[in-house]
Amino acid sequence: MNIGLTGGIACGKSTVSRMLASRGAIIIDADILAREVVEPGAPALLEVVRTFGPEILHGDGTLNRKELGRLVFEDAVRRKQLEELLHPAIIKLMQERMAEAERLSPDKLVVADVPLLFETQMEDLFQEVLVVAADPDVQLERLMTRNGLSREEAEQRILAQMPLEWKKEWADAVIDNSGAPEETEQQVEQYWRKKRLA
């Protein structure tokens, strides 16, 4: 069975991902795939260079993320352009990795960790979607601590995302990561057992 794992910023998706991995799930991380598709020589990187210009490359041919980020951060049109270039390549690679994992380990749970799963309409790629959530106050505190942000900056980042309530509503299952790690561990264990018995 394959599962799409997502959640809100600073809700603890990576924590839940690690807990599932420690139980034997195969984790496919979309952030890692996103870096792979822009490695030197990759078709997606060539398209990005064609669109945004050679100044987004370092001298050694690797992507200058900082420069590209500067170009698209303030410009919604250019950001959308970048997403349209990269998302198909990321989705294709993810599907390949999921198929390979299912072929090599048909008895294992395959979990794709996808931060923007709903935003990129990827839910149909998975048999089930698991959302990691946390109370708004907990989320805010964690984000401020983790990224060294002011309350206002953290609130802006959270507001820039799709509302967590929507994600919870659309999810097949939700893990609430507001409390102590042991409580999250307990929920993951329950979820794991249910999937293993399904």
Helix content: 55-70%
Whole-number average pLDDT?
Answer: 94
User: Tell me, what's the shape?
Assistant: globular
Number of helices: 9
* Multimerization status: single chain
Order of helices and strands: EHEHHHHEEHHHEH
Q: How much of the polypeptide forms β-strand, as a percent range? A: 5-15%
Give start-end ranges of low-pLDDT stretches.
none
Strand order of the largest sheet: 2-3-1-4-5
SSE class:
alpha/beta
Report the biggest beta sheet as strand number plus sense, adding barrel if it closes: 5 strands, parallel
Radius of gyration computed on alpha carbons: 18 Å
Number of extended strands: 5
Q: Distance between termini?
A: 9 Å
What would the keywords be for this entry?
globular, 198 residues, alpha/beta, 12% strand, five-stranded parallel sheet
Protein architecture, described:
The chain has 198 residues and is of the alpha/beta class. The chain contains 9 helices and 5 strands. Strands 2-3-1-4-5 form a 5-stranded parallel sheet, sandwiched between helices. Helix 6 (136-147) crosses helix 7. 29% of the residues are buried. The model has no long low-confidence stretch (mean pLDDT 94).
List the helices and strands and how they pair.
Elements: E1 2-7, H1 13-22, E2 26-29, H2 30-36, H3 43-52, H4 65-73, H5 76-104, E3 110-113, E4 128-133, H6 136-147, H7 151-159, H8 164-170, E5 173-176, H9 181-197
Parallel strand pairs: 1-3, 1-4, 2-3, 4-5
Helix pairs in contact: 3-5, 6-7
